[in-house]
UniProtKB/TrEMBL annotation, chains A, B:
One Pfam family per UniProt: MgtE
Major place of residence: membrane
Record-stated family: Belongs to the SLC41A transporter family.
MF annotations from Gene Ontology: monoatomic cation transmembrane transporter activity
Bilayer-crossing regions: 70-90, 144-163, 175-202, 208-228
Start and end residues of each SLC41A/MgtE integral membrane domain: 104-228
Keywords per UniProt: Magnesium, Membrane, Transmembrane, Transmembrane helix, Transport
Full protein name: SLC41A/MgtE integral membrane domain-containing protein
Membrane topology of the entry: Multi-pass membrane protein
GO cellular component entries: membrane
Top-rank taxon, per record: Eukaryota
Lineage: Eukaryota, Sar, Stramenopiles, Ochrophyta, Bacillariophyta
Iron-sulfur keyword on record: no
Biased composition (Gly residues): 39-48
Source organism: Cylindrotheca closterium
Length: 240, 240
């Protein structure tokens, strides 16, 4: 081995070290990314879960945990109070058709689940980089169509079950059957839109998206339910 | 520079390269961890979001997305149908006290938000390692207490708002006021228990915990609401 080849080996090794150093930096950078975004896991319910909160969580007293969260809970409760106002304003409809009220918690829960699925997939795809803000229109359109389809499939199942097994009247079954696709579409569309809106406003979608979607879906789904009921009852010649 | 020192420099460089290689492996390993756990983001709504799903999400057609999810949605919808059965079985109560129905979507949404906050914090703490399965009892007990407190705080606010601003009757306001702490406690306790149960059964809590909690809270919260109403109406000498 001559001095010259030895020094060229040295050069190669040094280059290799620099390459590896760059890779380590890149990996460390990548590690920071997901660690931050995993802070808002299961975001439904909100509240900013900082790294410090997570580190102290086990040892902080229950009232600290509770008081930290009660503000966000209050904000979401205030937005949920619109559902009580809507129910109140359709008092006469509910009194005449008490069966309508049976499906209110079912529809609220189902809307939340449908929108939650969309948000879950979208936040993961955004954090993995396979979806970017420029894809917003495509994603929202696709999710809306996916919502129509799953709502129709489940509506076809729920309708007969309510009519045959629960003995629900034909006209309320019709309302339920028609509300399912509408609700699924609204929930999936909102679930696809809200994360992008959060990003545009510089907010963390993993904290805000799910509870904001739930509140909006509950309010708009309930309104849609009563509007559809109004039209269906008219068709059947019933009093609304 | 003698041949000997050159070869010792070579040795050092080679050692350095091996060290860096080990660090790169370690970092890659760490990257895999959080990447997996971030798959179930905002889990509400469930459905197993695999890495492959995320990679293909943008380009798969809407019906593929929809059909992948509709199974889980159907399972959660089936469990939500218990809420319709409960509402149906309290038909006479609802007919006599239609005001009770106004707060059903509000309570369902609030229960989901409270339990969702607990699950969000707990999943992050579990994934960060600051909470471990052996801490289950401590966490569940603490969350239950935190739930009582936030339910009492918000009940004190919601009661007067319903009574003064919405003109709700005194006895239904009392029911609402008493249901809030119960609901918050049940939601926070379930939100703290379900992730540990998932781990014990070898299931991924980030996918199942939130929608399972929502369904259980909706059903048990609704039952609790009617049981409290029963007792309160008896106290006021009203027909149930």
């Amino acid at each position: 081995m001559t001095g010259k080849t030895e020094s060229s080996v040295l050069g190669e090794l040094k280059e290799k070290i620099l390459e590896q150093k760059a890779e380590i930096e890149k990996l460390k950078q990548q590690l920071k990314g997901p660690a931050k975004s995993s802070g808002g896991h299961g975001g439904h319910g909100g509240g900013d879960v900082s790294e410090e909160d997570i580190a102290n969580y086990l040892d902080e007293p229950f009232y600290t945990t509770s008081l930290k969260r009660v503000g966000w809970l209050g904000i979401f409760l205030a937005s949920l109070s619109f559902t009580a106002i809507i129910m109140n304003s359709f008092e006469h409809t509910l009194e005449k058709h008490i069966e309508l009220s049976y499906f209110v918690p079912l529809l609220a829960g189902h809307g939340g689940n449908t929108g939650g699925q969309t948000i879950g997939t979208l936040l993961s795809a955004l954090s993995a980089g396979t979806v970017q803000p420029k894809h917003a229109a495509k994603v929202i359109f696709k999710e809306a169509l996916a919502g129509v389809l799953s709502g129709m499939i489940l509506g076809v199942i729920v309708g007969p079950v309510a009519y045959k097994l629960m003995g629900i009247s034909y006209h309320v079954t019709t309302v339920l059957f028609l509300t399912m696709p509408l609700l699924s579409t609204v929930a999936a569309t909102l679930g696809a839109t809200i994360p992008f809106v959060c990003i545009w406003f510089g907010l963390d979608p993993s904290v805000i998206a799910a509870p904001a979607m739930t509140s909006l879906v509950d309010v708009s789904g309930l309104l849609g339910y009563f509007v559809i009921a109004n039209q269906v009852f008219k068709l059947y010649g019933l009093e609304f």
